[in-house]
Every structure is written in structure tokens, then in C-alpha cells.
Design a protein that fits this description.
Radius of gyration: 16 Å
Number of helices: 5
Largest sheet: 6 strands, mixed
Strand content: 25-35%
Structural class: alpha/beta
Helix content: 25-40%
Order of helices and strands: HEHEHEHEHEEEEEE
Number of strands: 10
């Protein structure tokens, strides 16, 4: 159990978009090493051969669960978080299946968590898929004078910018 505490659990929910999920898994294999475990919850109505083949060929440790239909995104995320916690992980990343990693920033985030025990959630900077150097979202702050949010500026990977909202497509929580 203590061995898992230093690693990162990554939870991905699939729903009838196996091509996107395969690309996501390929980006994980490219940038992250053995310090992770994948939990793939498949909400698809049927199993997809391309995804099955990719999952079987993964070089990282994983658990794959086909839910035999759509149990809902939130429930699948909660199942993954509960399983990661039960397996002894101290940190879990919720990663949308259509999101691609561009570097090893999830592992850098673990170091930030370890140095800052008061931080409960870290959002990662998201970039446009068609323009990977252009920031899509880096979090938002609540506007004090008006309703709604305003974007925060992206900062270097080793800095933490406190905000009220982090992108839901890729964030890490302390379990």
C-alpha cells in the first residue's frame, strides 16, 4: 500500500469514442513511466476492438472495466476514485479520454502536492489539440464584481496559481 502512495492513479472514462481513448492512452505511454496506474472505465454500449487491442498492449499497469453500458460519467469517475483510494493511492488524476498529454506534468504535479500539503486539487494547463503551444485553459477565478469567472494566466509548470476553478478535463486530487 505505501508503494502506491507515491504513485499516481489515472482514471479515464470511455464512452463510444475508442479512437480518442487510444490516442489518450498513447500519450500517457509516451510521457509517463511506471509511476502510474490506469483505471479505465468503459461506459460504451459495446466493446470496441481497437480499444480492446490497445488496452491489452499497454506497457503501463492498468485495470479495465467494461460497465456494459453507460452508468454515467460522474459515477464512473467516482468508481475509479474509490478503487484508487482502496488500492492505496494518495493522488488520482481524472483525465478526459479526448485529452492528450504533451509532457510529464502530472508527475511534476505530484512533487507540488508533496511540497504543499494544504493543496487538495491541482489543475493542469490545457492546450488546443490543433495548436499544442496555445493555452486553451489554465483555470479561472471568480469575478468579485460580476457573475462568472475570468481566466488566470498560465504560469511555468513548477508554479502554483491559486484559482476557483480548474479544467475538468485534466486535474489531480489528493485522496
Amino acid at each position: 500500500m505505501a508503494e502506491c502512495a507515491e504513485k499516481l492513479a489515472i482514471i479515464i472514462v470511455e464512452f463510444d469514442s475508442p479512437d480518442d481513448t487510444v490516442k489518450c492512452l498513447e500519450s500517457i505511454e509516451k510521457y509517463l513511466d511506471s509511476d502510474i496506474k490506469l483505471y479505465i472505465y468503459d461506459n460504451s454500449r459495446q466493446k470496441h476492438r481497437i480499444l480492446e487491442d490497445k488496452v491489452k498492449a499497454l506497457s503501463v499497469v492498468y485495470e479495465y472495466l467494461w460497465n456494459r453500458g453507460n452508468v454515467g460519467f460522474a459515477k464512473a469517475c467516482n468508481l475509479g476514485l474509490a478503487k484508487a483510494k482502496e488500492d492505496g493511492f494518495a493522488f488520482a488524476m481524472l483525465l478526459n479520454n479526448d485529452t492528450l498529454l504533451v509532457d510529464d506534468s502530472p508527475l511534476l504535479a505530484l512533487e507540488i502536492f508533496k511540497k504543499n500539503p494544504a493543496i487538495a486539487v491541482l489543475g493542469l494547463i490545457n492546450y488546443y489539440a490543433h495548436s499544442p503551444s496555445k493555452v486553451w485553459q489554465a483555470g479561472k477565478r471568480l469575478r468579485r464584481s460580476k457573475l462568472g469567472f475570468m481566466p488566470v494566466e498560465a504560469t511555468p509548470d513548477t508554479e502554483v496559481t491559486f484559482c476557483d476553478y480548474v479544467p475538468g478535463s485534466s486535474f489531480i486530487v489528493r485522496l
